[in-house]
Every structure is written in structure tokens, then in C-alpha cells.
Structures
1.
Amino acid sequence: MKNFIIFGSPGAGKGTQAELLAKKYNLAHLSSGAILRNALQNGLISDNTNKYLKAGNLVPEKTIINLMTETIGRQKKNQGLIFDGFPRTLNQAEKLDEILKEKNLTISKVLEIKINEKEGTKRILERAKTSGRNDDNKKILNNRFRVYRQEMTPIKNYYRTQKKLVSIDGCRTVEEIFQNLSAEIEKNI
Ligand code: AMP
């Protein structure tokens, strides 16, 4: 089975596109943010973790790696995966490769959606009206962008060296981006 990562700054449209791609290609959509929020709601991880989400900082490596390892372990064997929001650090990228290797799996492609921060901010502030997420506000968003800027280069280099990174322009309509990403997925399935 083929596995993909969707990668991009806050507001790039990762969640929207991952959901559409998951439906079209029968992939399991693993959103680390949603998995974390759900684990918090169900008391599966310490309440303390919430302070990282609220501030727009990355949760401790151990927390997210354990959660993702567990989640990957629960997936059907014959279904491909699309990761959204994970990995966020070089360490997570390396760990993900180890987890997949144990199952004889690998990442086929990393799909980066590129947008500028101005557009990302506009989209997140629009989403804030309905998302109910307490990290969708201007102050926290600036921190989320800062964290992204810090972590993205090592991750991109990691996948670029493996010739797995594809970058597409995210400043277009959902449909146009979806067509573009679909074409990339089809080259790999
Ligand atoms: P997201 O829904 O992807 O925007 O993630 C929301 C928040 O969850 C982030 O700001 C982090 O606090 C946390 N989070 C999500 N994914 C990760 C990850 N891979 N590593 C660490 N923290 C994460």
C-alpha cells in the first residue's frame, strides 16, 4: 500500500485536501491535531498537554510519537495512509520511517502545499468563525507560523534527499489544488 504525507503551513489547506484525497483514493486520514484533540477529550493523555495546543507549540515528542505509533498500529493492513500534521520535526520523520519499516511500509510521496503567511492568516481567521479551536486566533497563529518556519527546513531536506518531496502552489481554489495533488498521487499508486 502507498502512504503519503501532506505538509504545509497553518491555513495551507492540509486538512481539507487530506480529507478529499482520503475519500478519493480510499486512504486512512491520520490528522495528528485531530488525534491529539480527541485523545485530550477522552482523557487518554494528560490534561497538561493542552497547554501546548493552546499556545500553538508542539507537544512533547514522546506524547505525539506514542499516539501516532498506536494509531498506525490500529489501521487496516491493506489501506494506504495519508498523514496530516505529522511529522512536524526531523525526529518525528525519522521515527515515522522506523514505525513503518517494522510493518514493511514506507512513505511514497510528501505533498507540500505552499502558501504565504498572509493568505494562511486570512484563511485561519475565517475558519476561526466556525472551528471552535482556541488556537485559531491571531496571537497564537503567529506562534504556529514561527514554529512551522523553524521545523520545516530540516523536514523538507530529509524528504528532498529521499526524492519524495513535491511542492504545489496552494494559493488557488480547493478544486485546482485537489486536481494537482490527485495527479501526484496517481503517479504513485
Ligand atoms: P494542527 O491541527 O495540525 O494545526 O495541530 C494543532 C496543534 O496540535 C499544534 O499547534 C500542536 O500543538 C499540536 N500538534 C499537532 N501535530 C503535532 C505534531 N506532529 N507534533 C507536535 N505537536 C503537534
Note: The pocket of adenosine monophosphate is lined by residues 32-33, 36, 52-53, 56-59, 64, 85-88, 92, 135, 144 (CB under 6 Å).
2.
Amino acid sequence: MILRGIAASDGIGLGRAVCLREINLDYSHIPYSGREAEKARLQAGIAAFARRTAAMAAEIRERVGEKEAEILTGQAAMLADPYMRAQMEEAIEGGACAEAAADGVCTMYAGMFAGVADEAMRQRSADVRDMRRRLLAILLGAEEPDLSQLASGSVLVARDLTPSMTVGLDKENTAAILTETGGWTSHSAILARALGLPAVLSIPKALAFIKDGDRLIVDGGNGAVILHPDEGTRSEYRRRQEAFHAQRALLAGYRDRPTVDADGRRYRLCANVGSAAEARAALHAGAEGIGLFRTEFMFMNRANPPGEAEQYEAYREAARIMAGRDVVIRTLDVGGDKAAACLDMEAEENPFLGCRAIRYCLARPELYKVQLRALLRAGAEGKNIRIMLPMVSCVEEVRAARALLDACKAELEAEQRPYDKDMVMGVMIETPSAALIAGLLAKECGFFSIGTNDLIQYTMAADRGNAQVENLYSVFQPAVLRAIRHVIAAAKEAGIPVGMCGEAAADPAVIPLLIAWGLDEFSVSTASVLSTRACVSRWQGCEADKLARKALEQSTAAGAEGCLRAAVETSRGQAPPA
Ligand code: PEP
Ligand code: MG
């Protein structure tokens, strides 16, 4: 049986299930022993909570990192808040025992955080629930599951992976993690990645299907869990696991290195993210900056678009996390296959060719200005935010966006609010028209980023999501390769930096072409950062040049891809530089 969930942390784990069912926190049998006695019990419980949390935070700081420890210290700080404590004491005054008081107030806060639109604030709801569970366990003297001594090959199956569970976790004997809740940016995902454990999240009712001792295979890279695998499947996955470990051991050495090719030419290697939390994971994974922050995710699954304050917080948080490294934030890229119910978008005959991305935003200056103001303000502190325009197809769009940006600056100036006066604005090259007029666009902006996902689709007139035209949708199509080469050359001639943030930037067969043509920046998914750095390091400029010439001589995508993949295989055999 195969269960599917969110691929949250790469790697393969084989083992037997250890189901973490909720401990019994029922306090209905606890009598009310009077105001003073209950308050004293509450105080003692809170003090014990603070002591244990400080010890756990110290341990996690040492074993995992400061950011992860902050999740725990944040809980302790919340509980130390006199207002929260006063609310609990008020409940005790009203006749609640210490457990009921703690439960009531924590549940109220968790509900409050869960209801807000901001992703980071919503995450605090999980923290408060964790805090409630631990405080109740302390007050009731209930045993927390001891994860410090596990049998070898334990696969943890839990409703959610909480920060407190991971402290003292017997990592050596943990094969993998799977949970019923959580997304890519949830704390569970961040912690699993930080611990380097394979994880698949959001498998509905996993605890109903899986029992203690069941055999499991967790494929964290593909978001799949195999329940009761047979011997053949197990040995196949053991083989894949070995290959993964060998590859990872090799790649770990690239984490703190600069991104250089075999001639020592330097590149910038950034990550593509969809939230500030993901930026943290990217930094941890060795990214040198954020090359694409997709802001449209903030507009999805909600009733109203995020306001200036919410956007400002999210962008500033990402900028702070990246501590001086560039953070390229793409303005709202809705339309096509990216729907946002909170926005008024008319149904169109051809949505991919319709009023989407920059076109949509320019048609709604009031909505767009909210984002531009938030970006300008968020850049005031670190001056490391860059704005990027999606789906540009003509110079007028860049000028119109700049005019709106100038109008926002004038407003902020008049309001005497701090903002980044020199914020650089770049253009995504995703349409054939933008590629053809790259020379003209380069005079209007500070940088280019090539979005191959869309550039392929529009150049080949082949829907990126339609399997029937998959043969046409290829970065190796001669037209696409020429478009990329032309854009890089135009940027070089104008003296502006050029990056690539489409998925092709992480393809080992495309990398030598980008080296040959002079790309400055690669921006890839967090999981591909180290493999991209390793791949870049294998190429010498002259070898890449030769290969690029050969690839461009091919008149078909299959021909170009064939010669590139064959050359990559040969380069793989070479030892990585010391
Ligand atoms: C692209 O089109 O290459 C790109 C990076 O943007 P998205 O995938 O978000 O459309
Ligand atoms: Mg795109």
C-alpha cells in the first residue's frame, strides 16, 4: 500500500513504525482545591515548564541550531507573559483547576493564531498547542513519550512533529518521520530537514492505517510511504538509500564553499522560495541568497489579499533571515495556472495568454502599490531586497511599473517612512518577446532572471502542464537554447547581471551551457542547492564552451539533450575538487 503526502525532507528511511499517540491529558478527575492551592500548582507547573524548556533549548541549540532553539525559547517567553498568566489565574478565580485554566487559555490563543492569515503567525498556533500539551503533562505528572531511546530503524508516525519531541530524539535510531499534518513550511518540515531525517508530511489518518511495528519505507524526496513492503521492494529501496547516502556525503562538503567552476570563476547560487520560513531552510542548505521569492503563495487560500503590514512583515523577515545576502522578491504572479480566489480575476478564454502577472497588476495600480510599498519599506533595514517583475513582454510594462514604484517612493517620502531609495528592479525573461528585445529591456532594469518554466512554454507554444505536448516542452529545443544564449549575451553587453530561476538552472545537462554563455546566478530549489554547486565545480570554461558549440549545432532537442547528457556522465566520473 502506498500512501502519498508532502515531500518535506529528502532521503529514504526503512524501518518499523513507532506510533506517537497523544498521551492522556484528561483532567476531568482533578478536584478544585481552592484558589491559592491551584494558583500555587499553576506557578510550580509554569516554573517546571520554564526549566525544562531552557534545558531542551540549550540542547537543541547545540545539536541543531539557534533558529530551531528559538522555537522553544519562544514558547517559554509566551508562557512567561504576565498577561497570559493573569488570564489563567482569572480562570482559577472563577473555579477552574490549574489544568483547566492552562488548557482554556492555551486553546484560546491557539485558535486565535490559527485564524490569522499570516503564515508565520499561524505557525505560532502549533507552538501554543505544543506548549499546552507539555504544560498539561507537567501539571498531571503524565509521562511524555521517551524518544531518547528508540529501537534501531524506528519510523516515527505522529499527528504532528513538535519541537519538544525532537529534543533528545534518538536521531541515530530514527529512520524517518511521517505525520498527519504540516506543510513544507511547517515547523515539522523545518525540523526534519534540520535534523537531516527523511520526512513525508500531511498523510491523512496515518495513525489509523499504521500500527506499532508495521514495516514502512519513507521516500522523503518523492513524498511516498510504502506500508508493508515486500522483500523485493525493501532491497530496491535499500539500494536507493545507499546511493542517496553516498551522494549526500559527497555533497555535504559543498555546503560552506563558494560556487566556482573548475577554472575558479565565481557564480552566485541562490534558492527559490515561497515564504520567509523557506528562506531559513535555504540558508541552512547553503544558499547564497534568494533568487526568487514567489509572493503569489501569500495570496492563495484566503478571503482577502494580504495588506501592506502583512506583506511588509513577510518580506522584512526574509531579508533579515538572509542577513545582507540578496533577496529577489517577485511581484504578484497570478493567472494562468495560479489562481487566487481573493483577487477579482475574470474567466478568460486563454488564461495563460491573458491578463496575468504584471499585466494584472498594472491594471490594478491600487493593489500593486500595496505590494510595492511593502517591498520598499521592507528593504529599508538591510537594503538587500530586489524587486523582480514577472511575465514582462514589452518595455512599456517596465516603465509603468517603475512609475508606480516612484509614486510609492514619493508617498513614503511624504509620510516620512523609511524605505530603500535605491531598490534595484529586475525583469524576468519568460516570454519570447522579452527574450527578443532583451537588449532594449536591459537598458530599463537592473538585472535579468530567466524563467525557463514559462519561457519554454511560450517559445514552443506548448502548455507546461499538458502531457500531450511534453515532447515539445523541452529546454533543449534549439529555439529555447538560442533564446537563453541571446538573453545572457544581451545582459553582458548592457553590463547587468543575469540569472536563471527556472527549474532548468539545476539540470546538470543545462549547467555547462550556462557556464559557457556566462550566466552570473543560478537560483534553484533548496533541495538542489548543493548538487548544483557540485555540478558547477566540475566544468572548465573551455570544456563547457566546446560542449555548448556542439549542442547548438544539433537541430533537434533530442540531439542537443543527448550530447549534453553524455558529456555530463563523463564529467561525473571525475573526482570533485578537494
Ligand atoms: C519560470 O517561469 O521559470 C518561473 C521561475 O516562474 P514560475 O515557475 O513561478 O512560473
Ligand atoms: Mg513563470
Note: The chain has a mean pLDDT of 90.
